[in-house]
Design a protein that fits this description.
The complex is a heterodimer of chains A (322) and B (538). Chain A has 322 residues and is an alpha+beta fold. Helices cover 36% and strands 19% of the residues of chain A. Chain A is elongated, with a radius of gyration of 28 Å. Chain B has one domain: Cytochrome c oxidase-like, subunit I domain (Cytochrome C Oxidase, Chain A), CATH 1.20.210. In chain B, 67% of the residues lie in helices and 0% in strands. Chain B is built from 15 helices and no strands. The longest helix of chain B has 37 residues. Classes of the chains: A alpha+beta (322), B mainly alpha (538).
Chain lengths: 322, 538
């Protein structure tokens, strides 16, 4: 039989994949050894001590015997405990690597909805059920859902993260091998769950540049965000020439914001999202809670564009319109 | 009180015969039988759904049923198997029958409550079956929000109501067992003379009483959000979808222990009996059962490593999960050590019990893969998880259920089952089970997601193997229905103690008299007082 029809492992195509595979193989070895040991003991005893066999069954139940029993019990409790703790530390370390996004990661925005993945690159390139990424570069996905909970999974990269409505989750990876990889929704999300699939295309950096320029939108995400910013009237209060007293957004992203109730929060994606949809949740110190809510008026993609626009205001001198 | 003193028909089965007598019975043994008949019917409904699922998965394109139907099939399979078979499986059948007899009592503490719990269970089951007939439900047995509350337009309410009502039957059974075990033990039956089956029923009852109300509350919140659009879980209404998962798994993880702890109890009884040896490390085994039940409440977050839960919370849940697995591992070693220097015979119950140990070991070990956060990211929501929990809940719990049913069948019915058929079936189930579920570990590592009626073609060979195994397994599950039914009329009359087993239940006639004991027994020895090693009279 052709072994291609009996695959055992998926391709390992990201920087973390080999570490996950090593964990898997070590667990396979350990658990295989334990299972084998139990099986051998059971079969051995079952044969040797079968009813009617002449095996010696005498046991001297003296103090020495009970001391030995106690040691047996302690030993076979302690060995698994130590092994498990070691594996716990190691596997947790691998998890934290996957949970810590590198600073130089290239952001890509993603909205899951029944039943498709909508991807938008900062340059404005849009994709559906496909994700093109360059080889060897850390990619950070900033993800949200428009309806129910989905989960974004690339088995070839050994990564997976649930995508939730009402908040942003992140996932990052560095692709290490060019090619096409499966992309699955792994959180059951309704009728067409099994069709919420697609492919991830890992390209050589130069090929990726070509792809980008061939698929470039008319505007970058930030530029689209700037347009929304005016369209929804945000600029009337938050813009450079506003007369109403509202927080300025230049240089805001990633910085701590002092709130009315004395707490301080970091102005991340979620903070901006909440400010637009639930403006009374985090009122900055020194401002009146006069901002209206945009709940139900603004789509998830538009919100991400506005967030990308606010991020772009980092550099105060640049009004970002290409 | 030997069987010879009783007339042949003077037992719980024949006293006051007829439908009405059975449907209004307060006898714990009859209620145990009622439960057995009920959950057997439900097992085959849930099993039919599984059979259709496996048939459909033979091809990558879902050619047998539409994908909407497939979604409803796996939902009904999960709902029925979890709440209407596995949760009540051992406690409500063997537990109801045996708890009073094993501790030397005449009935449970609250016989009317016991009957009420069966009626609640039937009512809940009818609700679930109504939902099935009326068009089905497509949320998955996990009812994840906001899909279940705001997006699914199937019969969510009926199913949630059914599970809610059946939950109260769990709570009442648990309450009844706890009070009975505390208050009604015969003279001399001290805590550390209790058979491990009783310890397992006690621990299970604690979980039933403490965890089920949380499920009831959670299901109620689903119904409220769905009906009145009051935001609890749906972020569009100001709710938090992860809150649902925390509440759901706070019940549903301990629920796994509701299924497997009784199985551990059954296996301990059987292995000890057929080795003619006391259970190795009895006290440790009793403490381990309690420890597993208690720690089982602290690990629910390991279902949520990739849900968006904080990484620090995940770390704690991972650590606690590893800790709870230590007593489980030691239990496996203790069962193995019980064989040492025994006089082992291999009647069918023993084959089932050994099958339980093997499958539970594989299920437990693969659970460690999933407890490892760094590895769980890749495995979560794939077939690896499906294989793992089937090894525990079907391989473990169902094998033990069949083992227990065979072991106590002579006691319950007064008839011996046909031994050759039973041994053959135990073997068939073990082989069929492994062939069904082992390929799913491989599929899972390859990345095949759960709940996919359609899949990439490179996964097909493993799916075909799994479906082939399922056909063997289905045959294995169907066989006992026939030979056990046959034995009711044609099986040999069972003596009071066909296995020469210890334990009070074997001192009363088979089947037992209605009042269990004509005089209150006085217990003078430890559980499993098999003459043990070295004695030719074991």
């Amino acid at each position: 039989m052709n072994m291609e029809h009996l695959p055992l492992f998926p391709e390992a195509a990201s920087s973390i994949a080999n570490q996950v595979d090593t964990l898997y193989f070590v667990w396979l070895g350990l658990s295989g050894a334990v299972a084998l040991a139990v099986a051998v003991m059971v079969v051995w005893f079952a044969v040797k001590y079968r009813a009617g066999s002449t095996a010696d069954r005498t046991l001297v139940e003296d103090a020495e015997h009970h001391r030995r029993l106690r040691w047996i019990e302690i030993t076979w409790s302690a060995i698994p405990l130590v092994l498990f703790l070691g594996m716990f530390v190691w596997s947790t370390e691998v998890f934290y690597q996957g949970a810590t996004v590198p600073r130089n990661a290239l952001p890509v925005y993603l909205v899951g909805k029944q039943w498709m993945w909508h991807v938008e690159h900062p340059g404005g390139e849009r994709e559906i059920d496909e994700l093109h990424v360059p080889l060897g570069r850390p990619i950070e996905l900033v993800m949200t859902s428009q309806d129910v909970i989905h989960s974004f999974s690339i088995p070839g990269f050994r990564v997976k993260q649930d995508v939730l409505p009402g908040r942003y989750t992140r996932l990052w990876f560095t692709p290490t091998r060019p090619g096409d990889y499966h992309l699955f929704c792994t959180q059951y999300c309704g009728a067409d769950h099994s069709r919420m699939i697609g492919r991830v295309v890992v390209m050589e950096p130069t090929a990726f540049e070509h792809w980008l320029s061939a698929h470039a939108g008319a505007q970058t995400m930030a530029a689209r965000g700037a347009a929304r910013f005016r369209q929804y009237g945000c600029s009337g209060c938050h813009g450079a020439n506003a007369t109403v007293r509202a927080p300025r957004l230049e240089g805001l992203f990633g910085k701590p914001v002092q709130l009315q109730d004395g707490q301080s929060v970091i102005a991340d994606e979620r903070f901006i999202r909440d400010a637009v949809l639930l403006p009374n949740r985090n009122v900055p110190a020194g401002y009146e809670p006069t901002m209206p809510s945009y709940r139900g008026q603004i789509g998830e993609e538009e919100l991400l564009e506005i967030i990308e626009y606010v991020k772009s205001l980092d550099n105060v001198t640049q009004e970002v319109v290409r | 009180m030997s069987s010879a003193m009783l007339a042949e028909h003077d037992n719980y089965l024949y006293k006051e015969f007829g439908w009405w007598a059975w449907l209004t019975t307060l006898d714990h043994k009859r209620i145990g039988v009622l439960y057995t008949i009920t959950i057997t019917a439900l097992f085959f409904i849930g099993g039919s759904a599984a059979a259709l699922i496996r048939l459909d998965l033979i091809t990558p394109h879902s050619e047998l049923v539409s994908i909407e139907t497939y979604n409803k099939l796996f939902t009904m399979h999960g709902v029925i198997m979890v709440w209407f078979f596995l949760i009540p499986s051992i406690p409500a059948t063997l537990g109801n029958f045996l708890v009073p007899i094993m501790i030397g009592a005449r009935d449970l503490a609250f016989p009317r409550l016991n009957l009420a719990s069966w009626y609640l269970f039937v009512a809940g089951g009818l609700c679930a079956i109504y939902a099935l007939v009326a068009g089905g439900v497509d949320t998955g047995w996990t009812f994840y929000t906001p899909f279940s509350t705001m997006f699914s337009n199937t019969h969510v309410f009926a199913v949630v109501a059914g599970v809610f009502v059946a939950g109260f039957s769990s709570i009442l059974t648990g309450l009844n067992f706890i009070v009975t075990i505390h208050q009604m033990r015969a003279p001399g039956m001290t805590w550390f003379r209790l058979p491990l089956f009783i310890w397992s029923m006690y621990a299970t009852s604690l979980i039933l009483v403490l965890a089920t109300p949380v499920l009831a509350m959670t299901l109620l919140l689903i119904a409220i959000e769905r009906t009145f659009e009051i935001g609890v879980f749906n972020p569009a209404l100001g709710g938090d979808p992860l809150l649902f998962q925390h509440l759901f798994w706070f019940y549903s993880h301990p629920a796994v222990y509701i299924m497997v702890v009784p199985a551990m109890g059954v296996a301990s009884e059987i292995i000890s009996c057929f080795c003619r040896n006391p259970v190795f490390g009895y006290r440790f085994m009793a403490y381990a059962i309690l420890a597993i039940a208690a720690f089982g409440f602290l690990v629910w977050g390991h279902h949520m490593f990739v849900s968006g839960q904080s990484a620090y919370a995940g770390t704690v849940f991972s650590l606690l999960t590893f800790l709870v697995s230590v007593p489980s591992a030691v239990k496996v070693f203790n069962w193995t050590a019980t064989l040492y220097k025994g006089r082992i015979s291999f009647e069918a119950p023993m084959l089932y019990a050994l099958g339980f140990v093997g499958l539970f070991t594989i299920g437990g070990l693969t659970g460690l893969f999933l407890a490892s956060m760094g590895l769980d990211v890749h495995l979560h929501d794939t077939y690896f998880v499906v294989a793992h929990f089937h090894y525990i809940m079907v391989g473990g719990a169902v094998m033990a259920f069949f083992g227990g049913m065979h072991f106590w069948w002579p006691k319950i019915t007064g008839r011996m089952y046909p031994e050759a058929w039973a041994r053959f079936t135990a073997l068939l189930m073990f082989v069929g089970f492994n062939l069904t579920f082992f390929p799913q570990f491989i599929l899972g590592y390859l990345g095949m997601p759960r709940r996919y009626p359609e899949y990439p073609p490179e996964f097909q060979v493993w799916n075909v193997l799994s479906s082939a195994g399922a056909s063997i397994l289905a045959f294995g599950y169907a066989l006992p229905l026939f030979y056990l039914a046959w034995s009711l009329r044609h099986g040999a009359q069972s003596p009071a103690n066909p296995w020469r087993a210890k334990g009070l239940e074997w001192q009363v006639s088979s089947p037992p008299p209605s009042e269990n004991f004509l005089t209150t027994p006085i217990v003078t020895e430890d559980a499993y007082a098999y003459s043990g090693t070295g004695s030719p009279h074991g």
